[in-house]
Amino acid sequence: MVLSAAVGGGSVTGVFTVTGATIALAATVVVLIVVLALCLGGGGGMGAESPPPAPGASCIGGHLKIMTGETPPWIILNQIGKEQGDVMSLKLGHWVIMLNTLAAIKDAAVNFVKEMGSRPTNYTSNLLNENGKDISLGEYSHDWLLLRELGIKNLREFTANKKLEEIAHIVLKKLGDDLDQRENQPVNVKDIMVPAVAGILSHLCFGFDADPSIHDRVARLFGGGLYKYIVGPRLPVDVIPSLRFFPSRALSEAKATVNELNGLLRSEMKRHEESLDTAMTRDLMDGIIKCRNHARETEPDKYKFLTDTHVYQVISNYLGGTTAGFLVSSLTATALLVSNSDQQEKFSAEITKAVGEDRVPGLDDREELVYVKATIEEILRYACIAPISVPHKTTQDITFRGFKVPANTGVLCNFYGLHFNEEYWPEPFVFKPERFIDEDGKFKSDEHMYPFGYGARACLAQTEARQMIYLILSWLTHRYSLCRAPGEEDNDLLVQDPNVKVAKAVAPFNLVLKRRF
Ligand code: HEM
Known about the structure:
Heme binds at residue 459. The chain crosses the membrane at residues 12-40. Keywords: Heme, Iron, Membrane, Metal-binding, Monooxygenase, Oxidoreductase, Transmembrane, Transmembrane helix. With 517 residues, this protein is α+β, with helices and mostly antiparallel strands. The protein has one domain: CATH 1.10.630.10. It contains 17 helices and 9 strands.
């Protein structure tokens, strides 16, 4: 998923290389036209019966400056939202509405599943999903629903019977051998989490018989170039689409990265098709090809939309969803555990008590590990990777909480306002796993938690994501004590990564690993 998938704007980055006076003049004209278009309708609101516009819109650019400033946009929008009530509207290139309260978000999640179930599109999203042929960035339609169903079915069936645990343990064993060589030395958190997260996902998707260089390329793509496009600032072309006609280094780099990914996916799909074994499903790529074959054989008319591109884009979505959701959460998780050593010790001690020192924690251990489950829930609350949500879009004209909202309006939710609201969570910025443990010492969930989004677009891998985060964190803290790097003892590890604009993500930091036994 692209976390900012067309908030219609957002911060822009990259170097725009203009060659020659004619192009420069043409670019200036285009920019002026766009500025004029933004200016017209900048502060006037969506219409008389529509949600009230948030204050602070400028004639030029509407509320876009909120998305581009130094302060993270969710902090500003949360402040504004507190005054505005259930719903407000913002001009971020296009008009979007923002749901500010639990009541409004619940209403959307329960009663407007289809009506708020689409996604806005932009240049980058069309580039990534080859014009709408995927789950994460595709617009809501009958065919899109069928593709999402196939994506879920494949994931559920392949990861049943502890396949995820089996693969995670193999990948983590190798990572442990590598990390042991770096014991007691500063290690960057990304050097732990990228191989762990991308390694598990890449093996889930492409199997153990893939060329090992495939897994390295997946780690490099998703830990680097694609991480930038998925959670980083928008490309200028997503704010001003006409810029696609002009040469741009940022755009060429984006195209090269997407071409590399799609080339890798196509060649892996071909390799899998040529060696497909009907009796055995080696990995998620085998699984989705079999889902496609079965759908074509049994209901050819219903699935005639299903091209090869749709098939490998599902795999791309597993990898992209993992990068955006899981990699970002795991960086914050490590920062929280290093910064809160008492909680880390309690977390590790509960695992060691249940598992001992001679084996690694498995999924069967999880049920009795109440403090571990509560800590992971507190991590998901604090990480809140999509603080203003991944944008949805309305599929039709609706009346929502008394307001008229036209079709194709972007929909944002103030999840930050729920996850950090002191009415629901006393001392919301303090890391307290105990919030999720009841008086009887049992794990308790909470209705103000929305780490995986909502409605038709809710994360399709919540079960697997919870399993993975448990498997990685329990393995890591059982084996190592995670300590602050020398000379960096007083650093705040929870500062926002300045290169990440729409996701809440900590800046990469160093830590030191010490074997516990
Ligand atoms: C801790 C880990 C994760 C978190 C916090 C997370 C969070 C999210 C969020 C907030 C969304 C957007 C929901 C919305 O628009 O309302 C999402 C969507 C998605 N996630 Fe995850 N995710 C995680 C792990 C994963 C993993 C491991 C996968 C794949 C194996 C995955 C695949 C997807 C996909 C494909 C979508 C798009 C769904 C759609 O548009 O229909 N996620 N995730």
